[in-house]
Amino acid sequence: MFEWNPVNKPNHSRRVEKRAKRTAFSDKTRKEIGDRDGWLCIVCKRIAAEIHHIEYRSKLTEDCSSKRNGCCLCWWCHNEVHTGKRSKELREWLRGWKENKLDEKGDYKA
After folding, report:
1. pTM of the model
2. What does the alpha-carbon distance between residue 86 and residue 20 come to, in Å, rounded to a whole number?
3. Which helix (H) or strand (E) element contains residue 49?
4. CA–CA distance from 28 to each of 25, 33, 57, 87, 98 (Å)?
5. Among 79, 64, 62, 70, which Cα is nearest to 35's?
6. CA distance 86 to 66
7. Rounded Cα gap, residues 63 and 59, in angstroms
8. What is the DSSP letter of 8?
9. In which band, very low, low, confident or very high, does the pLDDT at 84 lie, cut at 50, 70 and 90?
10. Which of 4, 20, 74, 80 has a CB 3.0–4.6 Å from the CB of 84, allowing a cystine?
11. Could you give the angle at the alpha carbon of 13 between the alpha carbons of 32 and 53, nearest 5°?
């Protein structure tokens, strides 16, 4: 009968990290965004559960993991931005918020 002899997967490091890791916010940037927004959802002011990329990582040519491209959202608003009936409207609102409220470094305008 047939015997199954599994072979261990080679344990090598990647030359280039997976795309999701390359475009994720660093821990330092996540903390800066959270501190800037007071760890509250910028839409509804509930306690934030997510750090959201305002411009999708796939659409952005500049550094998509910069402080300027991130905001705090609660779970409900984050889900609504990605899958809700008002997702297009919310994404436009977030882009406007970014342009009107944040300076080039990603801090609130004075």
Report:
1. 0.77
2. 26
3. none
4. 8, 9, 18, 28, 20
5. 70
6. 25
7. 11
8. P
9. confident
10. 80
11. 30
Token pair recorded at residue 16: 């280039």
- Scanning the structure block, which residue is given the tokens 């760890």? 39
Residue 95 has pLDDT above 90, yes or no: yes
What count of Cα atoms within 13 Å lies in the side-chain half-sphere of residue 79? 4
Phi and psi at residue 41, to the nearest 5°:
-60, 130
Assigned token pair, 29? 């940037």
Structure tokens at 108: 């609130």
Separation of alpha carbons 42 and 94, rounded Å: 9
> Please, which pLDDT band fits residue 60 given cuts at 50, 70 and 90?
low
- Which one of 3.30.300, 3.20.20, 3.30.1560, 3.40.1800 gives the CATH number of domain 25-99? 3.40.1800
Please state the separation of Cα 28 from the chain's center in Å.
Answer: 13
